[in-house]
Amino acid sequence: MLGVLGDEWSLLIVQQTLLGATRYGDFVDALPVSHAVLSGRLRTLVTEDLLTRREYQQHPSRVDYTATSKSRSLWPMLTSIWEWERSWVPEHSHPLPAMRHSSCGVLFAPRLTCRSCETPVVSEKELLAQWGPSGGWERSVPSATTRRRSAERRAGVLFPQTMTVIGDRWGFAVLVAAFVGIGRFTDFQNELGAPTATISGRLAIFTAEGILHTVAGRYVLTDKGRALLPVVVCALEWAQRWYPDPDGPAVRVTHVACGHRFDPKLTCDHCLEPLRGAQISTS
Question: Which residue spans adopt a coiled-coil conformation according to this UniProt entry (predicted)?
Fold first, then answer.
């Protein structure tokens, strides 16, 4: 998952596809991306079965790109990102619109809910995360680095602060580590095995953006950082669904209240019914 979605352009291209973009020019119009980068990411997304490439005209050759089941199932993660940016990132040049649930017809906020007991989950303290048989930091951190884009170049993207987390593989690994209780600089470095400059850089960015703050020498999630919980668990659920390991899951998450495996579900905070991607529109 980190290898495929831990790249801001890949996630943004999938997001644009789910919003209706299908042709190369649609992506060029929507994203401040170079032709070389766009062409490369489209090839990768097709290879990873996140997009389907179809030639609809031969002379001259023209193709379109459509979402697959694999990419459509990212809607819980993308919905959680949308809600987090609306709630916690006020500096959008154009405010993000609210989301409407077509089933009940009202503007809503998604609620993270346990599928087993139907109880809302509002804090990471309600969940217990443990490594599964195929898990471990050495298999869960990026094997390659990606170039971070400057704040000025990120200004044109739809989810600027989310991209500092999801759009950066080391950033996502640092965030997950914070969610499972790692707090001291040396512990981040020892657990993740990252260079000192990499850890210090990501921690500095998260602190500047209000996702982490320091308490008695430890980096601790703020309310803003803890509100990323739905993004993290929906990303994890997607990863383990589409990239299963024959040895078993990489991470086991238990809902402490009911004692069952935590399978995340998003529900409407108004009608309390389960959400479906096709029922969500912007207003």
Answer: none
Give the residue from 228, 211, 229 showing the smallest Cα distance to 220: 211
Residue 282 confidence (pLDDT): 79
* Residue 256 structure tokens: 């402490």
pLDDT at res. 272? 94
d(CA 227, CA 243): 26
Topology of 1-72 in CATH?
Answer: Arc Repressor Mutant, subunit A (1.10.10)
pTM greater than 0.70: yes
21: Cβ contacts below 8 Å, ≥ 6 apart: 27, 30, 65
Angle at 129 between CA 135 and CA 87, to 5 degrees: 115
pLDDT in the model for residue 142: 60
Domain 1-72 shares a fold with domain 75-283: yes
Q: Among the listed ranges 67-81, 116-130, 168-182, which one has the minimum average pLDDT value? A: 168-182
Tokens 């001291």: give the residue. 184
Give tens-digit pLDDT for 205-248.
999 999 999 999 999 999 999 999 999 999 999 999 999 999 99
Q: Which CATH code, of 3.40.50.1820, 1.10.10.10, 1.10.287.3510, 3.40.1190.10, is assigned to 75-283?
A: 1.10.10.10
